[in-house]
Protein: L-threonine aldolase
Amino acid sequence: MIDLRSDTVTKPTPGMLNAMMHAKVGDDVFREDPTVNELELKIATLFGMEAAVFCLSGTMTNQIAIKCHTQPGDEIICDRLSHIYQYEGGGIAFNSGCSVNLIDGNYGRITADQVEACINNRNDLHKAYSKLVSLENTANRGGGSCYNFEDIKSIKKICDANNLLLHLDGARLFNAIVATGNSPKDYGEIFDSISICISKGLGAPVGSLLIGTKDFIAKARRIRKVFGGGMRQAGYLAAACIYALDNNIERLKDDHEHAQKLAAALQQKDFVGKIFPVETNIVIFEVKGRFTAETLSAHFKKNNILVIAISKMHVRMVTHLDINSAMIDETVEVINHL
Ligand SMILES: *Cc1c(COP(=O)(O)O)cnc(C)c1O
Structure:
């Protein structure tokens, strides 16, 4: 099977498994797991931030960040397509008791002007307190789109002028870093908190990191425990994440090239409508005419290729570590013959 459903389907390589097997471990709730401590220090240093906490998932890092930054009744400003709003089980309301002010952005990206227009007047009794702005980079439901760094800086200015905190859902931030050339430290300088997934394109089986100031991370560590996310000998998982950071960042550019090849093949077909601009490892396209998203996915499956119908008319393909160029060639061949 050529599994293009998501970059979460990767399995640990022998090198990664070897690193996991030889990890030094301890009880991480006591802060005694040397490998978890090493990973947290490594990612904080990479981003030029003070501290980090290792978590089970990107949903957990995002939800902990939101809980730390807000009080019940506060409002969060984000794009309508945001993972924190669409795909975290209503966690913003469930965990933090916050409302959202949703922006119709550009492929999942919002602008400083749009943020400014969403900020509520603190003296208006009718309105929730605007508290947090959350950006997503790359934007998953925007087709893996990347922010222009200048736009992020403009949003930060608006946040500073209005006492708003700024969170980054960077589940695929390394894809954006490889695609745009901005450095981790550029992001670390701007955001109050950053969430990174190591279990997506970087290929670890489990693991996300939340990065921020020392005080913020101390609070986050407490919330992680309350959410049931305090882990014990988690060093076996942290070792996979360290291995992923050391070995699997540069190669993301191959995934991006593979996505371009898929898009180029799709573009030739009469049943393909609009293709979202392909900037990283995600291809989302509209299906029309002879197929629906559902029947097209079934056709791919008959040819041992797995894709996802993300709506009635949209199909998503994601390239990753376990997809090599021979598999891309084979997929292109199938597309050509459809
Ligand atoms: C995958 C993803 C997450 C986190 O997902 P988990 O499955 O909880 O790790 C968060 N944000 C975005 C944009 C994602 O794509």
